[in-house]
Amino acid sequence: MAPRVQSKKVRSKKMGAALKVLTQYGFEKDHIVSTIKGLIEEYGGEDGWVFIEDNGYQVVVDSILDKQSSEQQKGEKVGESSSNPHVEQLAHSSGNMAMLRILCV
After folding, report:
1. Is 5 helix (H, G, I), strand (E, B) or coil?
2. Pair 52, 39: CB distance under 8 Å
3. Is residue 48 situated within a structural domain?
């Protein structure tokens, strides 16, 4: 049986819904879109939306936070310092930088 193909309209609605939810958590639109596109590719195509939408986009949140954490650790290795080390330490220890960013704004 041929694989089911979603229309561009359906994909657009799914991306729009994901952006609406995830921007409320404080994530930037470009990070959300690039992460979702990567996950769709990783899951083998448009059928991957089932996993992306599952549990309130948790896999997207985890993926973005992992990227931010690895970028932060890479920056620390190079010797970059934070403008506020207490906030940076709290974000690193809690593992939830997006929520911390919302609270600090």
Report:
1. coil
2. yes
3. yes
Tokens linked to 42: 């990783």
Q: Please report which helix (H) or strand (E) contains residue 2, including its range.
A: none
- Tokens representing residue 68 in the block: 């931010």
For residue 43, give Cα distances in angstroms to 17, 51, 63, 81. 19, 8, 14, 36
The number of domains in the chain is: 1
| pTM > 0.70: yes or no | no
In degrees and rounded to multiples of 5, residue 44 shows phi and psi of 90, 20
Task: Give the pLDDT confidence of 35-93 residue by residue, as tens digits.
Answer: 999 999 999 898 899 999 999 999 999 999 999 898 888 887 765 555 554 444 444 44
Domain extent, residue 22, equals: 9-104
Q: Which of 94, 21, 98 is closest to 52 using CA atoms? A: 21
* Nearest alpha carbon to residue 97 among 60, 69, 58: 69
